[in-house]
Design brief:
2 domains, rod-shaped, mainly alpha
Length: 167
């Protein structure tokens, strides 16, 4: 039980160190704090194994020590991860990445309304282009000589076909 209390104090120290670094606006130093936290956690595991071996009680004491260690260390690790996340979000690159992730989540969540909006927008643009193309095509076929030739090609081909058969 003593190990669990000591481990809890050390885990709180780890979280406090990381919190001090993040809170002071020095996220660049958070990696050193994380390394220090890893060293303290490794020391806790070593202490747990030493207690179990010295006590001679074997697996039962080792398991009890490790469960006590886990009970103390897991909240500290969660707090550390949250602090590192806060440090990452406190600089412009982290904010941009977070914004992109948020935008992607919102697009996925509201895909059907977004799809409906862009489908309607495309249908409107398409109808404008189709109407414009038909007007250009009609103007070309009715005004320019090549257009008149294309428009009346069947009649012209029929005339010359009959003329050729008469020879």
């Amino acid at each position: 039980m003593q190990l669990g209390g000591q481990g809890l104090r050390q885990a709180r120290g780890i979280a406090s160190t990381i919190g001090d670094l993040v809170g002071a606006g020095r996220p660049g130093r958070a990696s050193r704090a994380a390394a220090a936290a890893g060293g303290k956690a490794g020391g806790l595991v070593k202490q747990g194994i030493q207690v179990a071996v010295k006590g001679g009680a074997g697996i039962g004491k080792l398991a009890g020590s490790l469960f006590g260690l886990a009970r103390a260390a897991i909240p500290a690790v969660i707090t550390g991860v949250r602090m590192i996340g806060t440090a990452l979000m406190s600089n412009p690159i982290g904010l941009i990445i977070g914004g992109i992730a948020l935008a992607a989540e919102l697009i996925i969540k509201f895909w059907q309304p977004i799809k409906g909006f862009f489908t309607g927008l495309w249908d409107g643009v398409k109808s404008i282009f189709v109407t414009t193309w038909e007007w250009i095509k009609g103007s070309f076929l009715n005004v320019y000589p090549l257009g008149l030739l294309i428009k009346h090609w069947d009649a012209i081909a029929g005339f010359f076909g009959e003329l050729w058969q008469g020879i």
